[in-house]
Amino acid sequence: MSENGRQQRTAGAAAGHTVFRGVAWAITLVALPMLIITPMTLHQQLTLSVTIFVAALVLNRLPGRLPTLALIFLSVVVSSRYLYWRITETMYMSNVLDLVLASGLLMAEIYAFVVLLLGYVQTAWPLERKPLPLPADRALWPTVDILIPTYNEPLAVVRPTVLAAMSIDWPRDKIRIFVLDDGRREQFREFCEQVGVTHVTRDNNRHAKAGNINAALKNTSGEFIAIFDCDHTPTRSFLQVTMGWFGRDPKLGMVQTPHHFYSADPFEKNLDTFGTVPNEGELFYGLIQDGNDLWNATFFCGSCAVLRRTICEEIGGIAVETVTEDAHTALKMHRAGYNSAYLALPQAAGLATESLSGHVGQRIRWARGMTQIFRTDNPLLGRGLSWAQRLCYLNAMLHFLYGLPRLIYLTAPLAYLVFGASVIHASAAMIFAYALPHIFHANLTNSRIQGRFRYLFWNEVYEAVLAWHIFRPTLVALINPKLGAFNVTAKGGLIEREYFDTQIAKASLLLLLLNFIGVGFGLWRLTWVDEERIATVWLNLSWTLYNLVILGACVAAANESRQMRAAHRVDLRMPATLHFPGKPSLACHTFDFSSSGLGLDLPVEARYANAVPLEVSLYDGEIEHRFPATVRFSRGKRMGVRFEALTLAQEHALVQCTIARPDIWSERWGKHPRIGAHRVLAHIARISAVGFRDMFSHYGRAVARRLRPPAAATDSSRSGGSS
Hints:
By secondary structure, this protein is of the alpha+beta class. It is built from 23 helices and 19 strands.
């Protein structure tokens, strides 16, 4: 075929595609609203719901992103139809109490619907950006300043981060490391001098972490700035993975990587789910940020990121107007017309919060800060953002307003069970016909999209624990965004005894009590209610029982487990060699490690006495490093060793062999298998049962202590004194 023929054929195909898209959009814009708003009888609605759900089940079995988009479309149709029905046909209330309670539930449902739609926009098509290579000539690589801000964290937490930063593979003359010590501690200054990094202080603590970084920006000169929280240890490959995109895009202002945690957060620790259930943050770093990247809306997360100095300085440095300085900085960068990027490859890892109270405090700060941005620099207003960027930022901010809607969902069925109030003016059959498809489609679609990063129902546990605690600060921030101060998240602490955190669990306990009362009223109503309403009672009872399961898991999360390890263990299999005095060397493999010791798998069964001295070799590529150690335990083919008085050089080498390995975190990223909804709900129910057991045990002991008679009187008091 001639060139002209090919061009004509290409032009004709393009015109055909344009016409097809135009017709498809026209049909969609006409047919979709009609499908959403057309009233139907119960039988018609059930037929439509079953037909669409069967189609969704078929689509869910097909691989690829196009079936995912089709599932999203069906979910939007069904949910939109449900919400339209709720607004137009279920709000005819006969008294003020019914109207108030019904309006509260409807507002919560509208909020959930908006967040559902925005979530689909964010996560429908993750970009899955890959690293770009750097120039072969290392002389062309840019200069980088690594900033490690710290305030009140112990040196034991900061040391591994500094040593890991020193291990980053980058030309030594093009990298400088700065410890930004807002605690102004002599011990830190001495350590920095010892290892050869720069210790930076300032004469005030204005604007907390943001102010600390901004002060350092004025006294450093690298072309790029890499920022790590003081407990986030980077891998050796961090800069080589992240810096390539800056060479391609001169308007790229920031590259963000995931926050990965090698210690269990309070939910994982207290509920014993570490490594088996995706943690609270994996959805954001595993999926949402990757989805944001498609829309050039990646958020800066305050750590594990690289920023271009010139762009950072142009927007005024790190934002100081709100307590979530990181997200606000990214918003300013996007408003100024600059780009961001996200690489879903963990290149650093840190410590999660140890206690539930610390975790709640951290989330309160995030919620307050995002609400402050919503009030003072609303992404829907102002110039510089695309519509998609505005929606991504809006969803991030609306997410933290879930406190009141979640509390409403946890109490809504009580309106009918306790007061007989009709919050949905419709028969139970019609509610089933409209609400269940909405719930099923949303769960099916989100399970497909989120499956490796968030299991169904777990978000309800997380939100139920936090709902009351973040409701108040977000409400205050909506009224007056200037109120509220920055709080530092404590890391590296110990929990020396098990205890039940009554203060954190107070709201969950009150909600539990209310739902138990609701069950009592529901059972009472079953004894006399007429047959037409018995289905309504069962519907609300089922909802209440589900709430009890969720709240039981919340109570279990408040039962703090002991955390006595100052050095957290990390699973890792790598070669090692044992050297005993006067004996042949023994090749083996590690199964885990910490900064204080190793767990080892031996090739043969052996038994060694505790405290026997030895040396253990680990390998950094072809380089062997030896570390003095003693036997801690020896059982069959397994052995544990404890390191003994490592020199600074040996401590640095240990970091290079373990937490600074390029592949250590990426190998376990997003590896959770997809699990059916019934198995997830059964797991949460088992955890809930443990929560109830522990709660009754705790309060049973407390009551027993109160009822215990006072200590026996002394002999002299019993006998009336001496004669």
